[in-house]
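Write out the bound-state structure for magnesium ion.
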Amino acid sequence: MVTISVMNQKGGVGKSTATRNLGSFFANQGYKTLMVDIDAQANLSQISNIPDDIESTVLDAFRNKTPKIFTVANNLSIIPSSLNFAGIELEIIGAMQREMFLVKTLNKLENNFDICLIDCPPAINMITTNSLAASQWVLIPMEASFLAFNGLEMMINVISMVREGLNPNLSILGAFINKYKEHTIVSRDILEKMKEKGIDIALFDAKIRQYEDFKKAEFHKKSIFEFAKGSLAASDYNKLGVEIVEKLKSNKSI
Ligand SMILES: Nc1ncnc2c1ncn2[C@@H]1O[C@H](COP(=O)(O)OP(=O)(O)OP(=O)(O)O)[C@@H](O)[C@H]1O
Ligand SMILES: [Mg+2]
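---
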């Protein structure tokens, strides 16, 4: 199983939407895919097709219990989160190996899935550290705006720190531009800005444009592939999915 943290401490850039839609893409390609929601906002859980009154969440993983896995679609499963996950940081503050809860949980699932996507909260904290400790890759959704660079360097530093201290197998898979609008700032400008700042992250060619279909699909708790199969929105995610699979294959991750 290859594990990918979908991470950006900036809020609303499209982490949960990416996890949901890439999860669906990988599942449709035949990869047994697990999504893990580690955000107390529980957005990913809310936009996935699971019962409302779930009795087990990712909170169990942080309490040394085995969380239940829910089926979302063929080949697609989720360990959901819920609003009561919000207090977890305080709860584990004095725990032994408090960065390793997710590692322990996911190790047990190693042979059950091909790909695991972790939807991180918009923060750098002990919960995201758990995700980085358990991952081989980090995927960074970002918006094509000047402000998108705020915090990117800090995030890269944190990833390096985790690589040195906790998880030598961690690398950045790449970033992709979400909510892209033609005629505004283009990826070339973004790449230049990154170079200027000495930020060395691969940017996927595929860009996800801004479409209402994403919001509509979420409302119906469907991925873009189920909700609007032939849409431009679905075709954008398809392109990104193909690039990611290629990169994972060329690195022998899948
Ligand atoms: N390409 C897109 N086009 C239009 N709307 C989008 C697109 N991507 C995401 N959105 C919308 O933007 C909002 C934020 O997206 P999302 O919840 O995925 O971001 P996030 O990074 O997970 O946020 P948070 O940091 O709060 O967890 C959602 O309402 C989502 O439907
Ligand atoms: Mg989110």
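---
Residues 11-17, 39, 41, 43, 122, 178-179, 208, 210-211, 214-215, 218 surround adenosine-5'-triphosphate (ligand 1) (CB under 6 Å).
The longest strand covers residues 171-180.
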